[in-house]
Amino acid sequence: MKRYLMLVVAACLSFTGCMQSQGDAGKAPRLSGDTVAQIGDEKITEKDVEEIISQIPAQYRSKYSSSKGRREIINGLVEMKMLAWEARRRGIDKQEDVQLKIGLIIDQTLAKEMESNLKKSVKLSDADIERYYREHLDKYATPERVKARHILVEKQDRARELLEQLRKGADFKELAKKNSTCPSAEKGGDLGWFGRGKMDPEFEKAAFAMKKGETSDVVKSSFGYHIIRLDDRRDPKTKTLEQAKKSIERALQKEQTDRRLAELKEDIRKKANVTVNDEYFKRFDASPEAPEVDEARGSGEPEEQ
Q1: Which of 121, 159, 188, 287 could form a disulfide with 218 if both were Cys (CB 3.0 to 4.6 A apart)?
Q2: Helices (H) and strands (E) in the chain, counts
């Protein structure tokens, strides 16, 4: 969790706005106001801590809202900033490879904020939501489903014998375990929930015609002879507009954000005169391809003779 917290701190906040000159490094300044910690000339404020807490996923947020949790956040920030302070003192921030990493992190943060701003700018009306609901009604419809068990055997006479035992009170699950040739036998013949179009047509026809708790006569299919017991069934239903509203809002927001983002990228490409040097890639076109790996073996090692 500490590692996760440090990632949150590093990714979510920039403290450049909190840097103020408060005396020489090495002296322990007296903290006042909303300052909760200071490393050299750099302050960590109450606002910074609250911003971090707001970015932590809801399931962990209450933990870090306590005095102990806040101290963990602040200690993590202080430790990170102490090392960063020393890195600057040693000139590590001036190294070319480090500057590249810093630049990429800044660009990534700005790009994500740009996307976030676009997402926030999307405004949806009730008419938009209702229209999407009508046009995608099939997405919010759940078809009829049944939950069944069965016993499968090869011979019709054997199926009839087992059916007679069931009618005399034999336990369906036990008979399935001992007699069924289907892999479901180990689960007492349980096939779980299924909808139409998933089973053999004759099997499906019989199963969907049954009532909850019923046991069928012998049913012939392309697999053999079945005895079916219907454990449960669910009628078809469709979510109301109100029930589907939240998921529709998410879908529409993503759809419109993606469209606006694509349009923005195209506009930026023209304004910023974005170009890519195709000559760069030609140097790699003639590179030898990596040898293919036999996926069944998982490596390129030779076969044993």
Answers
A1: 159
A2: 11, 8
Residue type, 236: P
> Cβ distance 141 to 212 under 8 Å?
no
Average pLDDT score over the chain: 86
For every residue of 240-266, DSSP letters joined together read -HHHHHHHHHHHHHHHHHHHHHHHHHH
Q: What are phi and psi of 221, to 5 degrees?
A: -135, -175
The length of the chain, given as a count of residues = 305
* Residues of the chain predicted below pLDDT 70: 1-29, 286-305
Q: What is the pLDDT of residue 289?
A: 62
| Strands, sheet with 224-234, edge to edge from the N-terminal-most edge strand | 190-195, 145-153, 224-234, 219-221
Q: Strands 141-142, 190-195: parallel, antiparallel or unpaired by DSSP?
A: unpaired
**Where exactly are the structural domains of the chain?**
2-94, 95-134+236-271, 144-235
Is there a contact between 218 and 163 (Cβ–Cβ < 8 Å)? yes
Output the CATH code of domain 144-235: 3.10.50.40
Q: Which residues lie closer than 8 Å to 257 by C-beta, 6 or more apart?
A: 115, 118, 119, 122
AA identity, residue 260: R
The answer to whether 92 and 98 are in contact (CB under 8 A) is yes
Q: Exposed (0-12), middle (13-18) or buried (19+): which is 149, by Cβ within 10 Å?
A: buried
Find residue 150's DSSP bridge partners: 228
Are 79 and 112 contacting, i.e. CB atoms less than 8 angstroms apart? no
* HSE toward the beta carbon, residue 244, CA cutoff 13 A: 23
Write out the H or E segment, with its range, that includes residue 118: helix 96-121
Give strand ranges (E) for the chain: 35-39, 42-45, 141-142, 145-153, 190-195, 219-221, 224-234, 237-238
C-alpha to C-alpha distance for 227 and 163, rounded to whole angstroms: 7
For residues 87 and 39, give the distance between their C-alpha atoms in angstroms, rounded to a whole number. Answer: 13
